[in-house]
User: Which sequence fits this backbone?
C-alpha cells in the first residue's frame, strides 16, 4: 500500500489528536483511595501495555499469514507492527518502572510482571536482530510468530505479587470507561501508525 505525502500528514495529525484524547482521558480520571492521582499514570500504562501486546500479536498473525501465503502485503504489515511494538515496549517498560517506584516507593525486581516485561523486551530485541542481521523474510516472519507466542506464554503464566488482580475490571465505571477510551484511542493510533510505516517498507523484488 502506497500513501501520498498528504495522506501521511493527515494520518499523523489524527494520531496526534488521538494521543491527546488518550492523555486527556487519563488526566481527568478521579483520584482513588489507595493510589490517589497516581491512578492516572497506572491506568494509562495498563491501557498502553495492552495495545502494545496487541501490536506484537498482530505482527505474529501477519507472520503466520506470510509464511503460508508469501504475500508481500502481509510481511510489510507484520514489519510495521513490529517496528512500532518494539520501541513502544521499551517506553511502556519505563512507564512501568516509574509507576512501580511511585506506587510502592521501590522497584522490586522480584515482581513477576516486571520480570516478564524484561524477558519480552529481550525477545523483542532478538527479533530485531534476526530481522536486521539476516534480512530473510521467512526467518523474520517466523521470529514474529515465536515472539507473539513468548509474549502470551509469559503474560498468561505470570503470577500476581505486588500487582493487584485485574484492577480495572474490579473497579467502577469511573475507571473502566476512561481505560477503554484510552485503549480505543491508542489502538486507532497504532493502526494509523502501522499503515504509515507499512507504506514506507520497500516491496519485495
Assistant:
Amino acid at each position: 500500500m502506497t500513501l501520498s505525502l498528504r495522506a501521511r500528514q493527515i494520518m499523523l495529525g489524527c494520531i496526534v489528536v488521538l494521543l491527546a484524547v488518550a492523555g486527556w482521558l487519563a488526566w481527568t480520571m478521579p483520584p482513588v483511595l489507595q493510589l490517589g492521582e497516581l491512578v492516572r499514570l497506572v491506568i494509562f500504562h495498563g491501557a498502553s501495555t495492552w495495545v502494545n501486546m496487541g501490536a506484537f500479536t498482530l505482527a505474529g498473525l501477519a507472520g503466520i499469514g506470510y509464511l503460508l501465503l508469501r504475500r508481500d502485503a502481509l510481511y510489510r504489515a507484520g514489519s510495521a507492527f513490529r517496528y512500532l511494538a518494539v520501541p513502544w515496549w521499551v517506553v511502556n517498560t519505563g512507564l512501568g518502572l516509574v509507576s512501580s517506584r511511585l506506587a510502592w516507593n521501590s522497584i522490586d525486581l522480584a515482581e513477576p510482571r516486571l520480570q516478564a516485561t524484561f524477558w519480552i523486551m529481550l525477545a523483542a530485541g532478538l527479533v530485531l536482530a534476526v530481522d536486521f542481521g539476516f534480512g530473510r523474510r521467512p526467518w523474520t516472519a517466523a521470529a514474529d510468530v515465536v515472539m507473539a507466542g513468548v509474549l502470551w506464554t509469559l503474560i498468561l503464566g505470570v503470577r500476581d505479587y505486588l500487582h493487584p488482580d485485574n484492577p480495572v475490571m474490579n473497579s467502577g465505571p469511573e475507571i473502566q470507561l476512561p481505560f477503554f477510551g484510552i485503549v480505543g484511542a491508542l489502538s486507532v493510533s497504532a493502526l494509523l501508525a502501522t499503515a504509515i510505516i507499512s507504506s514506507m517498507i520497500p516491496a519485495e523484488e
